[in-house]
Amino acid sequence: MIENEVSVEANVSEVNVKQSGHNYKDQYKIHQEPFYQQQRNEVQLYEAAYRSRLPVMVKGPTGCGKSRFVEYMAWKLNKPLITVACNEDMTASDLVGRYLLEANGTRWLDGPLTTAARLGAICYLDEIVEARQDTTVVIHPLTDHRRTLPLDKKGELIHAHPDFQLVISYNPGYQSLMKDLKQSTKQRFTAFDFDYPNAELETQIVAKETGMDAALVAKLVKIGGVARNLKGHGLDEGISTRLLVYAATLIKDGVEPRDACRMAMVRPITDDADIRETLDHAIDATFA
C-alpha cells in the first residue's frame, strides 16, 4: 500500500513541476498542527539533521508515536510529506516509477520516492524492513553525498531537490534476521530511539489527544503498564499508546470502561486465553 502516491508524466522536469503551480506541492503539506508531546530533545535534534539534509531513521515499538513525530516535524518545517507504507510485495518500481501502456503509447509515472526527490518533500518510508532488501537498495544513492536517484528504465539521473530528505522507520522489537536492515543501509542514516512515554507523560498525551479526564486516563495507562511487563512472557508487544487513545475514545463515546479496555487494548494484541484472563483481571481490578 502506498499513501499519497502521485503520478508525473515523463516530460515533466523538476522545473516544470515547480512551474505547474503551488497546489501540486501544497497538497502534501500538513496544514493543521498534529499534536505531538516532546519526550526529550528529539525535535531539536531532528531540526539539526534537516538543516544538513541528513537521512533519519526512527526506531521504536508499535504505536509509540514514530509516524506522528514525522508528521509533526514536516508541519513544523513547513515541508511536504509523502508517506509510503512498506510491504513485502513492494518493488523498486513502486518507489521510483514505471512505464504504463496507454492507447497512444507509453507514459512514465513517477513513484512516491521520485516525486519527493523532484519536489523537495520529506519522503517517509514507514516500516522499511517490511520491504524486500533488493527494493530498499534503491534509496542508497539518495542517502550519501550524491543525493541522486537513477531511473534506469527511463535513462534519467535525478539530482534531489535541495529540500529533499529521506526518513525511514521500523520496529526493531520483532524483526528477525530475515527481516532486518543491512548495515550498508543502516549506516547511511542518523537515528532516533523511541519508546513508550513514562506514565505521567503518557497520561498527559492520551488526555490531550482525546479530551478525557486525566484521572480516568491514568487508569488506562496503568493497565497498559501491566501488559508491557508481559512482553517476552506471552506477549510479543505491549499495549501501545495508540490503543490507549482508542480505549479513551470509546469511553468518551459512552462505552463502559471495562468493555472499552477489552475491545481496544486486549483483544487486538493476543488470542492467548491465559494472557487475556490476566489482562481482563487487571481491567476489572482497576475499574472495580
Automatic annotation (TrEMBL):
Domain ATPase dynein-related AAA, by residue range, is 55-189
Q: Name one Pfam family in it.
A: CbbQ_C
**Membrane-traversing stretches:** none
Gene Ontology MF terms: ATP binding; ATP hydrolysis activity
Identify the keywords attached in UniProt to this record, alphabetized. Answer: ATP-binding, Nucleotide-binding
Superkingdom per UniProt? Bacteria
List, for all copies, the residue spans of the domain called CbbQ/NirQ/NorQ C-terminal.
202-285
What family does the entry list?
Belongs to the CbbQ/NirQ/NorQ/GpvN family.
Name listed for the protein in its UniProt record = Rubisco activation protein CbbQ
Q: Which organism is it from?
A: Sulfuriferula multivorans
The top of its lineage is: Bacteria, Pseudomonadati, Pseudomonadota, Betaproteobacteria, Nitrosomonadales
